[in-house]
Amino acid sequence: RPPVVMMRDAEASQRRRQGRRNPAARPMLVVAIIGASAMTFEVFRQATSAATFLGSAGHASARAAAAEAAAAEASAEVPASRRQAALAAPVAALLAATVGAPPKALAKRPTGVNNPGLLPQTDGKSTTVIDVAKILTESQERQVMATIKEIEQDSKVKLRVLTQTYPNSPGLAIRDYWGVDDLTLIYVHDTGGLGESNVVNFNAPMGVEKFKPVNFWRRAQNVFGNRYYIRDHGDGETVIDVVNYIRDEFKPKPPESS
Questions:
Q1: Could you give the C-alpha distances from 25 to 16, 19, 31, 32, 64, in angstroms and in order?
Q2: How big is the CA angle at 212 (ends 211 and 218), to the nearest 5 degrees?
Q3: Is the whole-model pTM more than 0.85?
Q4: What would the mean pLDDT of 221-239 be, rounded to a whole number?
Protein backbone atom coordinates (compact mmCIF):
# COMPACT_ATOMS: atom_id res chain seq x y z
CA ARG A 1 0.00 0.00 0.00
CA PRO A 2 1.15 3.62 -0.45
CA PRO A 3 3.05 5.10 2.50
CA VAL A 4 0.40 7.79 3.09
CA VAL A 5 -2.35 5.21 3.53
CA MET A 6 -0.19 3.17 5.87
CA MET A 7 0.41 6.26 8.06
CA ARG A 8 -3.34 6.98 8.30
CA ASP A 9 -4.09 3.38 9.32
CA ALA A 10 -1.45 3.53 12.00
CA GLU A 11 -2.87 6.78 13.47
CA ALA A 12 -6.40 5.34 13.50
CA SER A 13 -5.20 2.19 15.24
CA GLN A 14 -3.41 4.27 17.86
CA ARG A 15 -6.56 6.31 18.60
CA ARG A 16 -8.60 3.10 19.06
CA ARG A 17 -6.06 1.76 21.53
CA GLN A 18 -6.17 5.04 23.53
CA GLY A 19 -9.99 4.86 23.65
CA ARG A 20 -9.82 1.33 25.09
CA ARG A 21 -7.32 2.47 27.74
CA ASN A 22 -9.58 5.41 28.86
CA PRO A 23 -13.24 4.22 28.58
CA ALA A 24 -14.52 7.19 30.70
CA ALA A 25 -13.72 9.57 27.87
CA ARG A 26 -16.64 8.38 25.72
CA PRO A 27 -19.36 8.72 28.42
CA MET A 28 -18.09 12.21 29.25
CA LEU A 29 -18.49 13.18 25.64
CA VAL A 30 -22.03 11.81 25.56
CA VAL A 31 -22.89 13.63 28.82
CA ALA A 32 -21.51 16.87 27.41
CA ILE A 33 -23.65 16.52 24.28
CA ILE A 34 -26.80 15.69 26.28
CA GLY A 35 -26.18 18.59 28.66
CA ALA A 36 -25.78 21.03 25.80
CA SER A 37 -29.00 19.76 24.23
CA ALA A 38 -30.87 20.09 27.54
CA MET A 39 -29.68 23.68 27.95
CA THR A 40 -30.77 24.50 24.43
CA PHE A 41 -34.21 22.98 25.02
CA GLU A 42 -34.64 24.91 28.33
CA VAL A 43 -33.75 28.19 26.65
CA PHE A 44 -36.20 27.41 23.85
CA ARG A 45 -38.94 26.46 26.37
CA GLN A 46 -38.48 29.67 28.36
CA ALA A 47 -38.51 31.78 25.23
CA THR A 48 -41.66 30.04 23.98
CA SER A 49 -43.39 30.45 27.34
CA ALA A 50 -42.50 34.15 27.43
CA ALA A 51 -43.83 34.68 23.93
CA THR A 52 -47.05 32.84 24.80
CA PHE A 53 -47.49 34.92 27.95
CA LEU A 54 -46.85 38.17 26.14
CA GLY A 55 -49.29 37.17 23.42
CA SER A 56 -51.98 36.30 25.96
CA ALA A 57 -51.37 39.52 27.82
CA GLY A 58 -51.64 41.46 24.58
CA HIS A 59 -54.99 39.85 23.77
CA ALA A 60 -56.19 40.46 27.32
CA SER A 61 -55.16 44.10 27.10
CA ALA A 62 -56.97 44.47 23.80
CA ARG A 63 -60.11 42.88 25.23
CA ALA A 64 -59.92 45.11 28.29
CA ALA A 65 -59.46 48.20 26.13
CA ALA A 66 -62.45 47.24 23.99
CA ALA A 67 -64.58 46.64 27.06
CA GLU A 68 -63.57 49.99 28.53
CA ALA A 69 -64.41 51.75 25.27
CA ALA A 70 -67.83 50.11 25.11
CA ALA A 71 -68.51 50.96 28.74
CA ALA A 72 -67.45 54.56 28.18
CA GLU A 73 -69.78 54.87 25.20
CA ALA A 74 -72.73 53.46 27.13
CA SER A 75 -71.97 55.30 30.34
CA ALA A 76 -74.82 57.33 31.74
CA GLU A 77 -72.31 59.77 33.21
CA VAL A 78 -71.78 61.45 29.83
CA PRO A 79 -73.37 64.89 30.10
CA ALA A 80 -76.81 64.98 28.52
CA SER A 81 -76.00 68.18 26.61
CA ARG A 82 -73.08 66.46 24.86
CA ARG A 83 -75.14 63.40 23.91
CA GLN A 84 -77.93 65.58 22.53
CA ALA A 85 -75.47 67.80 20.65
CA ALA A 86 -73.89 64.76 18.98
CA LEU A 87 -77.33 63.53 17.92
CA ALA A 88 -78.87 66.83 16.87
CA ALA A 89 -75.98 68.88 15.52
CA PRO A 90 -77.97 70.05 12.45
CA VAL A 91 -80.98 70.92 14.63
CA ALA A 92 -78.78 72.70 17.14
CA ALA A 93 -78.83 75.89 15.13
CA LEU A 94 -82.62 75.83 15.24
CA LEU A 95 -83.02 75.14 18.95
CA ALA A 96 -79.71 76.38 20.41
CA ALA A 97 -79.24 72.99 22.07
CA THR A 98 -75.45 72.99 21.98
CA VAL A 99 -74.69 74.34 25.45
CA GLY A 100 -71.70 72.33 26.68
CA ALA A 101 -71.17 70.69 23.30
CA PRO A 102 -67.66 69.65 22.23
CA PRO A 103 -65.72 72.26 20.17
CA LYS A 104 -65.86 70.05 17.04
CA ALA A 105 -69.66 69.88 17.21
CA LEU A 106 -69.83 73.64 17.59
CA ALA A 107 -67.50 74.17 14.65
CA LYS A 108 -69.69 72.01 12.38
CA ARG A 109 -72.93 73.60 13.59
CA PRO A 110 -74.89 75.47 10.90
CA THR A 111 -75.40 79.19 11.38
CA GLY A 112 -78.41 79.99 13.52
CA VAL A 113 -81.64 81.11 11.85
CA ASN A 114 -84.54 83.02 13.40
CA ASN A 115 -87.25 83.85 10.91
CA PRO A 116 -90.74 84.10 12.47
CA GLY A 117 -92.08 85.25 9.09
CA LEU A 118 -92.02 81.61 7.92
CA LEU A 119 -94.32 80.46 10.71
CA PRO A 120 -97.95 79.73 9.79
CA GLN A 121 -100.68 82.11 10.95
CA THR A 122 -102.46 79.32 12.82
CA ASP A 123 -102.09 78.61 16.53
CA GLY A 124 -98.97 76.62 17.45
CA LYS A 125 -100.84 74.31 19.83
CA SER A 126 -102.99 72.97 17.02
CA THR A 127 -100.37 73.17 14.26
CA THR A 128 -98.09 70.15 14.61
CA VAL A 129 -96.64 70.27 11.09
CA ILE A 130 -94.89 73.22 9.43
CA ASP A 131 -94.23 72.40 5.78
CA VAL A 132 -91.91 75.22 4.72
CA ALA A 133 -90.33 73.05 2.00
CA LYS A 134 -93.77 72.27 0.50
CA ILE A 135 -93.05 68.55 0.16
CA LEU A 136 -96.35 67.29 1.61
CA THR A 137 -99.67 67.17 -0.17
CA GLU A 138 -102.77 68.18 1.80
CA SER A 139 -103.72 64.54 2.35
CA GLN A 140 -100.20 63.64 3.46
CA GLU A 141 -100.14 66.52 5.93
CA ARG A 142 -103.48 65.44 7.40
CA GLN A 143 -102.18 61.89 7.70
CA VAL A 144 -99.04 63.06 9.53
CA MET A 145 -101.05 65.23 11.91
CA ALA A 146 -103.40 62.35 12.73
CA THR A 147 -100.46 60.07 13.48
CA ILE A 148 -98.84 62.73 15.69
CA LYS A 149 -102.07 62.88 17.70
CA GLU A 150 -101.91 59.10 18.23
CA ILE A 151 -98.34 59.36 19.50
CA GLU A 152 -99.24 62.05 22.02
CA GLN A 153 -102.25 60.09 23.26
CA ASP A 154 -100.17 56.93 23.74
CA SER A 155 -97.02 58.43 25.27
CA LYS A 156 -97.56 62.13 26.11
CA VAL A 157 -94.62 62.88 23.81
CA LYS A 158 -95.37 65.88 21.60
CA LEU A 159 -93.95 65.21 18.14
CA ARG A 160 -93.57 68.29 15.94
CA VAL A 161 -92.52 68.12 12.28
CA LEU A 162 -90.74 70.86 10.35
CA THR A 163 -89.80 70.53 6.67
CA GLN A 164 -87.29 73.00 5.31
CA THR A 165 -84.46 73.65 2.91
CA TYR A 166 -81.85 75.26 5.12
CA PRO A 167 -81.40 78.20 5.58
CA ASN A 168 -85.00 78.80 4.49
CA SER A 169 -86.38 77.92 7.92
CA PRO A 170 -88.16 79.61 10.84
CA GLY A 171 -85.29 78.36 12.98
CA LEU A 172 -85.29 79.51 16.60
CA ALA A 173 -88.79 80.92 16.21
CA ILE A 174 -90.30 77.44 16.50
CA ARG A 175 -89.37 77.25 20.19
CA ASP A 176 -91.88 79.84 21.31
CA TYR A 177 -94.39 78.96 18.59
CA TRP A 178 -94.58 75.31 19.67
CA GLY A 179 -93.79 75.91 23.35
CA VAL A 180 -90.92 73.41 23.20
CA ASP A 181 -90.40 71.58 26.50
CA ASP A 182 -88.79 68.38 27.83
CA LEU A 183 -91.42 66.18 26.15
CA THR A 184 -91.31 67.89 22.75
CA LEU A 185 -89.66 65.80 20.05
CA ILE A 186 -88.66 67.85 17.00
CA TYR A 187 -88.29 66.10 13.65
CA VAL A 188 -86.68 68.37 11.05
CA HIS A 189 -86.75 67.08 7.48
CA ASP A 190 -84.26 69.07 5.41
CA THR A 191 -84.32 68.72 1.63
CA GLY A 192 -80.63 69.33 1.06
CA GLY A 193 -79.55 72.60 2.64
CA LEU A 194 -77.82 70.77 5.50
CA GLY A 195 -76.23 68.20 3.19
CA GLU A 196 -77.45 64.82 1.93
CA SER A 197 -76.40 63.10 5.18
CA ASN A 198 -78.59 65.40 7.31
CA VAL A 199 -82.03 64.97 5.76
CA VAL A 200 -83.74 63.34 8.76
CA ASN A 201 -82.87 65.09 12.02
CA PHE A 202 -84.20 64.83 15.57
CA ASN A 203 -83.97 66.88 18.71
CA ALA A 204 -84.80 64.50 21.57
CA PRO A 205 -84.59 66.11 25.04
CA MET A 206 -84.10 64.14 28.25
CA GLY A 207 -87.81 63.61 28.76
CA VAL A 208 -88.03 61.87 25.38
CA GLU A 209 -84.82 59.93 25.99
CA LYS A 210 -86.57 58.20 28.88
CA PHE A 211 -88.75 56.52 26.27
CA LYS A 212 -86.11 55.95 23.60
CA PRO A 213 -82.34 56.45 24.00
CA VAL A 214 -80.06 58.41 21.70
CA ASN A 215 -79.08 55.28 19.76
CA PHE A 216 -82.70 54.76 18.72
CA TRP A 217 -82.81 58.16 17.02
CA ARG A 218 -79.46 57.60 15.37
CA ARG A 219 -80.70 54.36 13.87
CA ALA A 220 -83.84 56.09 12.61
CA GLN A 221 -81.66 58.77 10.99
CA ASN A 222 -79.55 56.10 9.28
CA VAL A 223 -82.53 54.07 8.06
CA PHE A 224 -84.71 56.87 6.71
CA GLY A 225 -82.20 59.65 6.09
CA ASN A 226 -79.86 57.99 3.62
CA ARG A 227 -79.94 59.15 0.03
CA TYR A 228 -81.07 55.76 -1.31
CA TYR A 229 -84.20 55.74 0.85
CA ILE A 230 -84.99 59.33 -0.14
CA ARG A 231 -84.41 58.51 -3.81
CA ASP A 232 -86.72 55.48 -3.74
CA HIS A 233 -89.52 56.96 -1.62
CA GLY A 234 -89.35 60.72 -2.08
CA ASP A 235 -89.35 63.33 0.69
CA GLY A 236 -93.11 63.35 1.34
CA GLU A 237 -93.43 59.59 1.77
CA THR A 238 -90.26 59.54 3.88
CA VAL A 239 -91.83 61.99 6.34
CA ILE A 240 -94.90 59.73 6.59
CA ASP A 241 -92.71 56.65 7.09
CA VAL A 242 -90.66 58.32 9.83
CA VAL A 243 -93.75 59.45 11.73
CA ASN A 244 -95.41 56.04 11.37
CA TYR A 245 -92.23 54.38 12.63
CA ILE A 246 -92.20 56.60 15.72
CA ARG A 247 -95.88 55.86 16.33
CA ASP A 248 -95.31 52.11 16.15
CA GLU A 249 -92.35 52.29 18.53
CA PHE A 250 -94.20 54.44 21.08
CA LYS A 251 -97.41 52.42 20.96
CA PRO A 252 -97.99 50.51 24.20
CA LYS A 253 -97.14 46.84 23.86
CA PRO A 254 -100.04 44.45 24.50
CA PRO A 255 -99.61 42.22 27.57
CA GLU A 256 -98.14 38.83 26.83
CA SER A 257 -100.63 35.99 27.06
CA SER A 258 -99.73 33.36 29.64
A1: 12, 7, 10, 11, 58
A2: 160
A3: no
A4: 96
